[in-house]
Amino acid sequence: MASNTQHYQLDLPKFDAPVRLLIVVAPYYKAIADNLVAGARATAEEAGAAVDLVEVPGALEIPAAIGMASRGANYDGYVALGCVIRGETTHYDTVCNDSSRGLTLLGLQGLAVGNGILTVENVTQAEVRADPAGQNKGGGAAAAALHLVALARKWGKRSVPGGHDTDLDVIRLAGQLEGSTRT
Question: Was 85 annotated as part of a binding site?
Answer without folding.
Answer: yes
